[in-house]
């Protein structure tokens, strides 16, 4: 199959770029990138993946990061629609997986509204990459039979609207996306809902990238440790007993003593 056989003029593919490492990109995603006429890409798409874009392909950054939005969602929707109606082969490159906290539904609705042909190419999500780097399984027989994925990003500085009692399940692994700035609220609310303060937690910054950092700590120390560790980097938090299985050769560990120094 030739690359252009995957995508016809006017088609739009929402493509998962994975956590950042180009080696974790799917083969289909790479073929779509090479077949596109124009690519709209997120801020969290790794530089090694952007290097795969051929020189003749138009590239437009539509990245959104906490507090720094280069394009609002409505503008992104309009750009995708315009490119499709102009007969271009369009790839919308999203960090991680398009189905995971990626505003994909809004883009699909806008494109369906004009009759555009849409495809979705999944990608590896950051929680999977963080677990792999730390040498742990998100689920574990007898410890965690369930995994919950949440985003801690709030709208307009409002309190995070989550079912804390459901999340504070000691037999579950909780993966928190965009949780860096909400560490204090996460810790406080989960402990109030019944999750022990000693519950293991893993902070992963820049998952899968050469500059990746991992730190194992406890739920009650999460706010203090986060301030010193994550800085302004893309951060994912894993909370639950499976974190105790993390490979400490791949992770630093913050104890009460270390965190208070």
From TrEMBL:
Question: At the top level of its lineage, which domain of life is listed?
Answer: Bacteria
Tell me which NCBIfam families the record gives.
Answer: cobA_cysG_Cterm, PRK06136.1
Give the metabolic or biological pathway: Porphyrin-containing compound metabolism; siroheme biosynthesis; precorrin-2 from uroporphyrinogen III: step 1/1
Q: Which UniProt keywords apply?
A: Methyltransferase, Porphyrin biosynthesis, S-adenosyl-L-methionine, Transferase
Does this entry carry the keyword Methyltransferase?
yes
Q: What is its EC number?
A: 2.1.1.107
According to its UniProt record, which protein family does this protein belong to?
Belongs to the precorrin methyltransferase family.
UniProt-recorded Gene Ontology molecular function terms: uroporphyrin-III C-methyltransferase activity
**Start and end residues of each Tetrapyrrole methylase domain:** 12-220
UniProt KW Chloroplast keyword: no
Q: Give the GO terms filed under biological process for this record.
A: methylation; siroheme biosynthetic process
Question: What is the official name of this protein in its record?
Answer: uroporphyrinogen-III C-methyltransferase
């Amino acid at each position: 199959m030739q690359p252009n056989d995957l995508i016809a003029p006017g088609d739009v593919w929402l493509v998962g770029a994975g956590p950042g490492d180009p080696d974790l990109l799917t083969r289909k995603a790479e073929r779509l990138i090479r077949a596109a006429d124009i690519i709209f890409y997120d801020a969290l798409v790794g530089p090694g993946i952007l290097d795969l874009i051929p020189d003749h392909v138009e590239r437009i950054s539509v990245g959104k990061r906490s507090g720094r939005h280069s394009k609002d969602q409505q503008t992104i929707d309009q750009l995708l629609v315009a490119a499709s109606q102009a007969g271009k082969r369009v790839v919308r490159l999203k960090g991680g997986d398009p189905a995971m906290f990626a505003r994909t539904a809004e883009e699909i609705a806008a494109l369906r509204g004009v009759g555009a042909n849409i495809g979705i190419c999944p990608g590896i999500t950051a929680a999977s990459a963080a677990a792999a780097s730390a040498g742990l399984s998100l689920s574990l027989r007898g410890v965690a039979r369930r995994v919950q994925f949440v985003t801690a990003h709030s709208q307009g500085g409002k309190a995070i609207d989550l079912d804390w009692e459901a999340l504070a399940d000691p037999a579950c692994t909780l993966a928190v996306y965009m949780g860096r700035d909400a560490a204090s609220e996460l810790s406080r609310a989960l402990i109030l809902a019944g999750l022990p303060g000693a519950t293991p937690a893993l902070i992963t910054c820049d998952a899968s990238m050469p500059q990746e950092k991992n730190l194992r700590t406890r739920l009650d120390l999460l706010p203090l440790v986060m301030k010193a560790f994550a800085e302004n980097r893309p951060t994912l938090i894993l909370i639950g007993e499976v974190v105790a299985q993390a490979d400490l050769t791949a992770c630093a560990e913050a104890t009460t003593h270390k965190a208070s120094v």
